[in-house]
Amino acid sequence: MDFTLTEEHQMVRKMVRDFAEKEIAPHIKEQDRKQEFDRSLLTKMGQQGILGICIPVKYGGAGMDYLSLAIACEELERVDTAARVIMSVHVGLNSLTLFQWGTQEQKQKYLVPQAAGVKFATYALTEPNAGSDAVGIQTTARREGDHYVLNGEKMWISLADVADHFLIIAWSDMEKKRKRDHSGMSAFIVERGSPGLATDTIHGKLGVRAGNTGSITLTDCVVPAANLLGREGEGFKIAMSALDGGRYTVGAGAVGLIQACLEASVRYANERQAFGAPIGHHQLVQQMIAKMVQRLEIGRLLSYQAGWLKNQGKRNTRETSLAKWTNCDAAFDSAADAVQIHGAYGYSDEYDVERYLRNSKGAVIYEGSREIHQLVQAQYALGYREDKPLRCELPAYDPEEWQSES
Ligand code: CAA
Questions:
Q1: I need a surface site. Which of 67, 164, 246, 264 has the fewest CB within 10 A?
Q2: Exposure class string for 282-298: b at 16+ Cβ within 10 A, else e
Q3: With 0-12 CB in 10 A as exposed, 13-18 as middle and 19+ as buried, what is 178?
Q4: Is 151 exposed, middle or buried, given 0-12, 13-18 or 19+ CB atoms closer than 10 A?
Q5: pLDDT tens across 226-281, in order?
Q6: Is 367 a catalytic residue?
């Protein structure tokens, strides 16, 4: 086992950290207060190559490995969760899924501009009445000649109101829908501007206020048959494999949030005096800081383990779920402790830690709630769940091929 990061990984970390500190940190408090999404951030992340970081050069990306994606998410979320959420939907849930399941034509048409950062993408499974229960979605897709007609509503979709491309999961077989047989679901690439597609923004969120979260309404939305991703009936597996990418970015980002909590807490504990000494000298404060160090190191190892498996082309559903569950819980606990260390100041937005706490809660709910991941982990341990080979697996990282232009 080699735990050292390569020079390329260290370069990625420095590049993304510099970017986040220069482009995000100075404005984030104000944007969060105003609940304002900064669209120019997407363009800047695209120009920096961050949006196609682990996509081969021939598909418009930077040709780095999957571990680089985790490092980028860590560094973005160290500054603000909203920036990491962009990576989760654009790269983790959408681009990697096109890379895994798309035809050459679909990759050229959709993946290339996404990886180059000129078109922005999201993923839509969740609906007003179906979150954890993915088979409970109601959106339908009816085949009519050379196109499909989609009807339904998606909710809690990050970047809903700004994305150019949507990966939409819908039922294409109504008999199977009635029986809740997931092999009646299909996945579709839908473009903004498609007739019958409308989006909106949800206001009043607890956290990630600088991010865009919204809904998508599909009213007889016409989608060309060529935009079916995978085959008819593969939609559930595509949706789940997309979550293996999305959850990976969420788990990695949570490590960055723990890092931010630790840095803020150490700084404050060395400055703030109580009982005649900096509060860092008091043992109960030390305990909270020690736990942050513990959560950070465990989280990073779990996240990099999942990344290593992805690089090898090995299935990582179990490990990714474990990293996502563990790290999101750990980030929430760390943020609560960081607020505690800051005392009354931590309760106001004078310091960043109150934003960390609000931001950390969402990830304990989305992309598989804490409870869903616990069920999944127990099912693996009990022998009730095992992974089956897929028709299209996520390609292993190949440095030469991924850097090649053709
Ligand atoms: N990759 C590919 N295929 C997979 C898979 C994976 N990771 N996991 C399961 N499958 C396959 C299985 O092999 C199985 O195939 P067969 O029928 O051929 O045997 C099939 O899918 C069904 O699998 P399961 O029996 O495991 O399915 P389940 O019904 O037990 O799954 C569940 C239950 C785990 C709770 C699942 O429904 C789940 O993960 N729910 C949470 C959904 C979620 O995370 N939603 C958040 C979406 S994020 C969003 O939409 C908002 C946004 O901002 C983008």
A1: 164
A2: eeebeebbebbeebbeb
A3: exposed
A4: middle
A5: 999 999 999 999 999 999 999 999 999 999 999 999 999 999 999 999 999 999 99
A6: yes
3-state secondary structure of 158: strand
In short, whether 363's Cβ falls inside 6 Å of ligand 1 is no
H helix or E strand, kind and range, residue 76: helix 66-79
Alpha helices in 20-65 (DSSP H): 25-34, 39-47
Rounded mean pLDDT of the chain? Answer: 98
pLDDT averages per 10-residue partition of the chain, 406 residues: 92 98 97 95 97 98 98 98 98 98 98 98 98 98 98 98 98 98 98 98 97 98 98 98 98 98 98 98 98 98 98 98 98 98 97 98 98 98 98 98 95
Query: What are 18's two structure tokens?
Result: 């510099």
* DSSP letters for 354-384: HHHHHHHHHHHHSSS-HHHHHHHHHHHHHTS
- Helix axis angle for 66-79 and 235-271, nearest 10°, is 50
Q: Which of 158, 110, 156 is nearest to 137 (CA)?
A: 156
- Contact criterion met (CB below 8 Å) for 376 and 30: no
Active-site position among 175, 354, 367, 386: 367
Q: In ligand 1, which atom is closest to the CA atom of 238?
A: 2
Per the structure block, which two tokens stand in for 389?
């080979």
Stated as kind and residue range, the H or E segment containing 219 is strand 213-224
